[in-house]
Description:
Blueprint: E1 3-4, E2 10-12, H1 39-74, H2 79-83, H3 97-127, H4 133-146, H5 150-165, H6 170-194, H7 198-206, H8 211-239, H9 243-247, E3 257-258, E4 261-262, H10 271-279, H11 284-317
Antiparallel strand pairs: 1-2, 3-4
Amino acid sequence: MATQSATGEPLLSALPDGSDLNPFAGVDFSELEKSLRRPRTLANVLLGGLVTCMTLMALVPLISVVWMLVWRGGQKLSLALFTQLPPAPLEQGGGFGNAILGTLIIVVLATLISVPLGILTAVFMAQAKDENRLASTVRFAAKVLTGFPSILAGVFAYGAVVLLTGGYSAIAGAVAVAILMLPTVMLTAEDAIRMVPAKMKEAATGMGATHTQTVLMVLLPTAFPGILTGIMLAVARAAGETAPLLFTALFSNYWPTSGGHLNLMQPTASLAVLIYNFAGMPFKNQVEMAWAAALVMVLMVLVTNLIGQSLSRHQVQQ
Length: 318
């Protein structure tokens, strides 16, 4: 006999032999209930619990470091830290406003150097044919640079900039940091550009767009979220580098200005070097300031990443 719905239409009809078309005929629903007595279900629960425990164990170091930074560094936070200069030994109070400004200057200069060069190189590698030896060589060199020791970048910038200009400077520090940022920007931008659907490029070409117009108006805007993610990763690495700056920007207890104007050709303070210097001092005030500087640097990187994610989401929605 056929079964009817609320509208009176037949849902199941009977076959000539008297059996119906019920897809659940002969199914024992009790066998589908979840039970730990079954080996597969038991293995799934055990492995799920194991993965959860391992994830929590992996989060313990991260949470402990963040908690220690907030606990030790948060107690020292005050407005004076952002407006005053580093204190001398045995002197109380003080701040690291010059180090914050110096970090921003070096990171911005390094970004201005590495991002345009990295994106242009990424466009070349993404658009080059697979048999292009130059593109393959550049890609290989970029992958090698991702594991490049940061101190060697500082040594290179020392020989290429510091010795030529005759002194430590923010420019030299920016060059060293830009070398470390460049491979991250190049590789992430290349992957983002390669993920752009080929139909979009073909449509732009079919509408009469030149290769340059296709790159500027189709490829780069579409790949912008991925490119921005790579830039944020590179900036986060640049903000925390210490070894390259010891050879290039060095450190300074004064503001990076001269005669009321910004002076990029003199030793410049940075948060990373300040933490390195103050953490090893036998003075309580300097050690507490090192914790506070570490917290401020982490917050700066966090805010930068949040801004980058917000911009990338806004671009995707558009």
